Amino acid sequence: MLDGKEHDFTPAAPLNAPPNTPPAKGKRTVTWLPNATGMLVTDVITNETPQGPTTLQVARKWTINRDGELTITNFIDAPNGSYETKLCFREKVVLVL
Questions:
Q1: Which site among 46, 67, 72, 80 is 20 to 30 Å from 59 CA-CA?
Q2: What predicted TM-score, i.e. pTM, was given to this entire model?
Q3: How far apart are CA 4 and CA 13, in angstroms?
């Protein structure tokens, strides 16, 4: 929901999770960026592990520029480190004669 409020959600289980792993718990907040230039999706995911709970924070910034380019920037803070990824999608016009 794009209302700026925190909502519970059930994240997908990791592909390498053992069959008896309890499901992760997630909280998600979605807000508009200033001037409605895009949206920010923030997830906080808690997993129970044999070593205790671990927390993963993911922020995804979705923007579209004037040329119609969609950019999704991911900011990930995990127990084993932090990193950033960026995906850019451009509309391509193909002329077929």
A1: 67
A2: 0.83
A3: 25
Place 93 in a pLDDT band, splitting at 50, 70 and 90: low
Bridge partners for 83 per DSSP: 76
Could you please report the per-residue DSSP string of 2-26?
-SSS-EEE-PPPPTT--TTPPPPEE
Q: Which residue is associated with the tokens 């499901």?
A: 23
d(CA 30, CA 5): 7
* Structure-block tokens of residue 81: 């480190």
Instruction: Please give the structure tokens belonging to residue 1.
Output: 């929901």
What's the rounded Cα separation, in Å, for the pair 49 and 68?
42
Q: Give the neighbor-by-neighbor strand order of the sheet with 81-89.
A: 7-9, 25-32, 38-49, 52-64, 70-78, 81-89
